[in-house]
Write a structure and sequence with these properties.
4 helices; mainly alpha; globular
């Protein structure tokens, strides 16, 4: 709800009119974003790694952008596509590396005990 209120407050800074987005689109985003944010908060409690939380934030932002591009008809420049692609690939590589090397770290700690 806070993100929605802040976005509504920033509407005048956009185009030179006070037209609001379609109500159906706003409700769909609110309904879709709320479970994502709740799950993200629960994951933060489990993971406790700031880098992991940052990677989750990248995926969260990517899903919101994709929704508005695909469903809301927003335009997306080539530079924006490249930027989000780099972020997404980096997040995936981090996840793969963490998964791969977490097994090695567990083995090293078992050998030390």
């Amino acid at each position: 709800p806070v993100i929605g209120l802040m976005s509504l407050a920033l509407v005048p800074l956009g185009p030179n009119n006070w037209s609001l987005p379609p109500m159906g689109l706003a409700v769909a985003v609110a309904v879709a974003a709320t479970p994502i944010l709740v799950l993200q908060m629960q994951l933060i409690q489990l993971l406790k790694s700031p880098v992991t939380v940052a990677v989750l934030a990248v995926f969260h932002d990517l899903m919101i952008v994709l929704y508005f591009v695909l469903m809301g008809g927003e335009t997306f420049s080539e530079a924006q596509v490249i930027g989000y692609a780099v972020s997404a690939v980096g997040a995936v590589l981090y996840s793969c590396a963490k998964y791969r090397y977490s097994d090695l770290a567990d083995q090293d700690s078992d050998e030390c005990n």
